[in-house]
Structure to design on (251 residues):
């Protein structure tokens, strides 16, 4: 951090309190992102696009992540919507492999690619953030439906299987079979955190073993070389910041 400040000296500016930022975002999501017809928080304003990627995305900054903030800070209506959103994910979007379809129109879900490819980063985002939401629900006296927990465990198992077969998570995998389509990269950076958390959620030591082995490989193959790759789905394997902060969160 000291080197960064030498290169680009900046002083923090208190522009807008986080509480006001929350009000702005909450108003946006409740008024212009909630789709009552399909019970999901859309990626864009409902009715504004027919593109599946513009209607629903699981990972990245999509509907599987945003609801954690709503469970933490939202009012009763917002929290109920967040729970409906989670139910839609578990009821409609899980593939036979245990992974999840990451795009859709609310009624149908798929990968958005010709050969069933799904970005590993999006899958890892969901594995990690779903458990964070489980924790929040339970900490406030709620119950996580058994179907949600069993569904997410299938995804954790899919990652453990993937590691056992390939000793990597890859960048794109076949959502139907779990097999790697395009290997390499640090796309699965946050998967390490998701599996480490899953070892506690499900009391499965194997998840932690895989998480530690994968984190060590990421460190040796990428961090020591000064870059990470595979976070965004649209820049091939170019170095990026998103896989870096995913790996930081896992560490």
């Amino acid at each position: 951090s000291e080197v960064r400040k030498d290169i680009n000296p900046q002083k923090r500016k208190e522009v807008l309190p986080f509480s006001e930022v929350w009000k702005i975002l909450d108003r946006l999501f409740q008024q212009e992102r909630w789709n009552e017809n399909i019970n999901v928080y859309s990626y864009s304003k409902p009715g504004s696009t027919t593109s599946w990627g513009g209607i629903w995305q699981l990972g990245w900054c999509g509907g599987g992540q945003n609801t954690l903030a709503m469970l933490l800070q939202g009012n009763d209506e917002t929290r109920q919507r967040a729970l409906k959103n989670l139910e839609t994910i578990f009821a409609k979007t899980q593939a036979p492999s245990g992974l999840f379809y990451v795009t859709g129109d609310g009624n149908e879900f798929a990968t958005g690619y010709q050969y069933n490819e799904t970005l590993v980063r999006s899958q890892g985002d969901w594995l990690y953030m779903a458990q964070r939401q489980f924790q929040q629900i339970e900490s406030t006296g709620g119950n996580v439906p058994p179907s949600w927990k069993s569904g997410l465990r299938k995804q954790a198992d899919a990652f453990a299987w993937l590691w056992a077969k390939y000793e990597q998570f890859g960048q794109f995998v076949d959502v139907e079979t779990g097999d790697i389509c395009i290997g390499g990269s640090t796309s699965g950076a946050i998967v390490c955190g998701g599996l480490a958390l899953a070892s506690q959620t499900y009391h499965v030591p194997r998840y932690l073993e895989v998480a530690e082995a994968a984190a060590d490989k990421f460190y040796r193959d990428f961090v020591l070389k000064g870059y990470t790759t595979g976070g965004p789905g649209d820049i091939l394997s170019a170095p990026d910041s998103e896989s870096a902060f995913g790996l930081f969160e896992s560490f």
